[in-house]
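Tutorial sheet, problem 5. The two components below are modelled jointly, 1445 residues in total.
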Amino acid sequence: MTVREKLRQKISAGFYWHGLLCASYPVPIILFTAVCILTCCYPLLKLPLPGTGPVEFTTGVRDYMVPPQEPSGDPGERPDWYRGPPVAYIQQVLVKAAVSPWDNRLVPVDAFRSPLGRVFSLLDEIRNHVHSDSSGVRSLEALCLQVTDLLPGLRRMQALLPEHGCLLVSPGNYWQNQRELFDSDPDLLRTVQQYEPKGLHTSATLKDLLFGVHGKQTGVSLNSRNRVVTYTITMALRHYDVRFLGSLRSRLKQLHPSANCSLREEHMVHVHFKEEIGVAELIPLVTTYIILFAYIYFSTRKIDMVKSKWGLALAAVVTVLSSLLMSVGLCTLFGLTPTLNGGEIFPYLVVVIGLENVLVLTKSVVSTPVDLEVKLRIAQGLSNESWSIMKNMATELCIILIGYFTLVPAIQEFCLFAVVGLVSDFFLQMLFFTTVLSIDIRRMELADLNRRLPAEAGMPPAKPGPLRPRETPPPPRPSPHTITLQTPAFRNLRLPKRLRVVYFLARTRLAQRIIMAGTVIWIGILLYTDPAGLRTYLAAQVSEQSPLGGAGLPHLAVAPATPPPELDPMPPPIPQISWGPEDEEGWRRLSYRHWPSFFSYYNITLAKRYISILPVIPVTFHVTPREALETRHPQDTRHAPPLQTDPSPNALPHGAPVQTDLTLYKVAALGLAAGVLLVLLLFCLYRLLCPRNYGQNGVQHGRRRRGDLPCDDYGYSPPVSEISPLLLRGHNMDIECLASDGMLLASCCLAGQIRVWDAQTGDCLTVIPNHGRNQGKSSAVTDLETLGGAEGQDAGGAGYPVRRRAAPSRPTLFGDQPDLTALIDTSFGQQPPSQAPSASSGFDFGGLVERAYLEHEPSVSPVFSAPPPQPVQRRRSLGDQPMAPTDWDSAVWALELRGNLIAAGRSSGKLEVCLWDAVEGSLRCSNEDGVSGITALAFLNNRIVAARLNGSLDFFTVDINKPLGLLQYRGGPGRGSMPPSPCYSSDDVISCQLTRSVQCAHQKPITVLRAAAGRVVTGSQDHTVRVYRLEDSCCLFTLQGHSGGITAIYIDQTMVLASGGQDGAICLWDVLTGSRVSHVYGHRGDVTSLVCTTSCVISSGLDDLICIWDRSTGIKLYSIQQVLGCGASFGVISDSLLVTGGQGCVSFWDLNFGDLLQTVYLGASSEGQGVRQLVVLDNAAIVCDFGSELSLVYVPSVLEKLD
Amino acid sequence: MPRLEERWWSCPCSPGVKPGSESGRLPSKAAEAMSAVSSVLRGLRAAGLVRRGLVLFTVGVLLALVLNLLQTPRNVSLFPEEVVAPLFSSAWWIPPCCGTAAAFVGLLYPCIDSHLGEPHKFKREWASVMRCIAVFVGINHASAKLDFANNVQLSMTLAALSLGLWWTFDRSRSGFGLGITIAFFATLITQFLIYNGVYQYTSPDFLYIRSWLPCIFFSGGVTVGNIGRQLAMGGTEKPHSD
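Model answer (structure tokens):
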């Protein structure tokens, strides 16, 4: 054990130093590694490239010996496959024949009929050639490759290809090698053409096979230019007999001399064919590769928390691949030649070597503390994982060693490769990948640093708004945990790569352009190469213009029978038979599948074997016109007349053009279909990837400012759909509190004015002014101010939809001079003078006076010139406060809305419950039991809970003197999650009773209060959270765990409780047991807001970051950088949609992926201001608070989804 | 029937990844997909079972076909040339059989795990599963393509490879026991079918086939069990979002 420990320590230390080294000198090490890889891969150059193309090897003819079976001494220049006798020796007799001189009486068919006819005599000569010398008599029969049956599938060719005898083919096979059949054949071309495959073909055709030269070279066609017919007689020989072949060669040359022939005849070419892969072998191969790619995909997907995920994945793959190459190279260097099929074993090698170590390394390094230096992080990460890496490697080596002892050669070879691959992979991991990782980590830290600086700079003091104790930002405390948790931050600030690529494509229209250019090029090529197309046309033009081709014009015989020689001023061209170097190896022009398919007809495979091609024997025939005329078939002239009408030698007689035309049409149709398919495919792809119609709404793009959105980096902004914000105006000052129950929206501004809006239409329904303000004062200014307030109410109270047009009509004289007296009272310690509890549910003139006032509606404008008493009187009537000569000089600190009751908590400690109706905003009851300011309110069912500044908690019950059965329940907006709230009518008398008061709920002011699911949760500055039961106000738990004041609490119907504090920590609690479920440090500075969904927790902090946490594991998924001052404004619309506020806009995010979906700009005037509060209503509307304005945004697409 | 074991493969396109990749592209649909997936997962366990079964079935059928092709050059294929045409009518049910067996085994493994109360934690990730499948195909490949000196060597090698596969990717006692059981019964069924003349080996070397069959069955069982466990786990946890 001690040995093991020692070993472990040593390994760990070694890795540590190695990590330090790698991180210190990244560039030299990478260079060194690259040199190593290249050196090790150098032997690979000697290996043949993979592929199924044939390989050639040339030897001299003179000293040719059949290579020995075993590799002999000098393997230097000889390839491996060159051993043993070949499958066959191929001897070709290349015949060029022409009718010469050309006679005007001849028809085009004559150009090849009699030259082709010569093949039969030549065949006889070859077959009957006998060489006799001292060693005996040899004939072709003895030497040639004897073949048996054709394959069963080739019965069609049975008549054409030899069976049971010598493998000797020539064009004569078309006519069963019988001269009589040839002579009686009325249409030679048809005989040749009928065996050609229809349509497109790439592999060897029968014509190629029998003629032995490429189809275009044969000259057997009616439009042949030089009227020279070329064909070969191909024989396959089993044995190589120099003397026989020599005598045959000399005899043929002697009989049919080629005048200007200078072919070199000293080289024979050995052609080796690779194994061909059929579908049956291909499918498993493809499957293994698919599995391999899946493996690589799933492995590299786990690389996370690095700067460039793709870069590291690439590095990992490069590591594995180059280690494989190195292993092959090293094995070759030491004389081990790979015999296994590389393509087949490659996936298994990759799987054996694996990407695991790379991933383990990455994970280990990434999880080291971020505040360390990069060098140290790398070193630590390496040393942490050193033991497991070494252990794994030893295990794998052991397994492979066991495999080596199976003594199966293939497995042994595989194991050898695997061992070398493993070692070189280890080498590369340690040097190459570690270094790349260190570079990446360094880059990430730099980026992190750059990003964090501005966020820190503008953190606390820029927060506007009133100075209230609970919002005073505490000094930011340095906690290292917040840093370590932020590694994956910011990666979602940018769009995902795939989207960027798509946007790039969409912006540049790259795909369309490439397709268009490709189509044009393709059509051009098609036009040019088409046999009936441009090229022949051009060639015809050229030949017409050139003097040599002048024969084209009128010269040709009009009719063979009556050739008018005087019409032909020029001598008929003499077909020139020329031998050039291109004739030496005419077989090269054939398809490379020519020989394999030739032999495969007889079930002889050339896979992994070779054939030797001997130099050709040239033979030249000159046929006199008289001979040609003699051999002419009577039907040949019948073909001629249509030809005669066209004087050009390039004229195409009917046979061939029909063929080519058909091919052309086929190609065209195929191309068209392919094009249509491609376009459809791209269209589908396009629709899938860019579902929105960003082509529209182009006007709005102009207003967008760059740099505002992350996606603006690439010049393409995401589309704006039909979302249009609704502006709610009316408040003179900044909006303080917002409350909503889905259908109604209550807002309260700093001036104490409460407005009630219809959340559906945005109409202002009621205005409740700050009652009795300035009651005791009588200066003209304040009168005017109240007058202005009254005027404002007129507009609202009359039921105008207060939209944009309402704003300019308001006299600015009053709007610009708000009374700030409500703000001044911030001395909370001073107790407001307690008032005698007046009849809180008293008389209500509101309805009556309001109706009377409405009749006076047309006379709104004279209000300004009215004598002072009138506004005072009306104000009183509107305010419905005949009984409140109390201290109204208090601000509304908390606002709650339930049903049509608004509860407002004031800084004076007074609780007001207002009844809302379409026309009246009347105070129904108030309670002034408390003396300390109400900091938070909760309104659930018929209970109101008020938290006070002094830490006490009051429970109120709202009673109505009406049997409960008569209560009409107002159905919520339909899809609300809240229970339907009872609807109170204005006839009911509502009383608000203090049922219980918990005096010392908290030691310090209560900052947050939330109620749901029958629980009331309070958070205070004394670092604790308390849970009360709503029914009996009993304190259930006191939750301790924060090290700072509580600033945010979330609880919902499913009893999920989360709390955030000034320490930046977020705690999740179990409400049933009171235990802490998880605890994370998320923010630097206060947590300002918290929301939970089923899967995650979303928090925002004073650091203007919105963090999304996995609820079960407490791992930060990602975070969103907010605009300065908009940190706390966010809301969750559904389980997967997050809304955040920004500078004059709101952004929608996909909660699951952190992708920015859309940004909506909320009108021109609000552009400069940030969204400070954001409330999500039940009907998927969003209310944002821009200073004194509210903005109501409907999200229709979300609406559909909720249904 | 040498290819009965082909029930044990999984394809890379496992359902666990599908919602993630799709919704990444179509964020508006992502919500639906996610909520649908989660609701299905939460609400209907049976539906998850059926889905896993379907995936395993598909995988089994696919690899039955692929691995059968792998065997053809060795001429131990189930369908010899001259028998293909008349016998194809009776052999069409082999891939479905393999698929069913794959579904059965793939569902059995997590089930037994949960009954024994020892959840399988060793290398639970898709990359490892892919590796396992690749190794299994490699074992098949080796058995099909390599030339061994004698049958003993072949079966010893294959046994060692199968054990290595189990040790590398499974290492659980339940997995080993189940694999052995499956191998035993599958071989038994195969032999039974052969004795009844439903099947015949095209190769005359009878022992040759019998010797490597249990090893292949064993490794196949381990592989499919691996897939089944991963699927079962991917079902309970949230689909991984990229």
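Marking note: Residues 311 and 873 of chain A are 76 Å apart (CA to CA). Full credit if you identified this.
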